[in-house]
Amino acid sequence: MPIELDLDDDEELDTALVSAPERDLVDLAGILGMHNVLNQSQYHNVIKGKSQDENTGTSFNNVVKAYQPRAVPDEGENETDVEDCLKKLVEDDAALTEVNINNMKRVSKERIRNLISAATHSTHITKLSMSNTAIGDSEARVRDFVIKLQYDHNIISYCLGAC
Fold this sequence. Notes:
- By secondary structure, this protein is mainly alpha-helical.
- The protein has 2 domains: about 15-70, no CATH class; about 80-150, Alpha-Beta Horseshoe (Leucine-rich repeat, LRR (right-handed beta-alpha superhelix)), CATH 3.80.10.
- It contains 6 helices and 3 strands; from the N terminus they run ααααβαβαβ.
- The protein has a 3-stranded parallel β-sheet, with no helix packed on it.
- Helix 2 (about 20-30) packs across helix 3 and helix 4 (about 80-90) packs parallel to helix 5 (about 110-120).
- The longest helix has 13 residues, at about 110-120.
- The protein is rod-shaped.
- The mean pLDDT is about 75.
């Protein structure tokens, strides 16, 4: 619902603003980008060209309601058998091209070092995923043996000691 005003001077503008209903002032605030004085529903209505109603609020003193976030199911545990992967890497098994130990914080750093060491000698591994495993700089120093290495969400410094 557009607001139409034909004003010639500042005095007419002041009179129009004083006599304007608060619903129109809410729309005007949204048009002028004053989103900090509106709740999100009011601002959304202004942007979409909709009129304000009792559900969204027609005044500046509305209570802002939180939205209910949708429930997201937890991911299952990582079922990777680290010992089996380590054995296959040592044997240079051609069928093993990817190793994923993401989110396995209970795997010891020594076992991760052994896994990395075995992966460095494997000629078939193309991807090693170690995200969120609580590894540090010493474990993150991996040579150029894989096509894709993923180790985000760990405790690794910016320069890995090369600074």
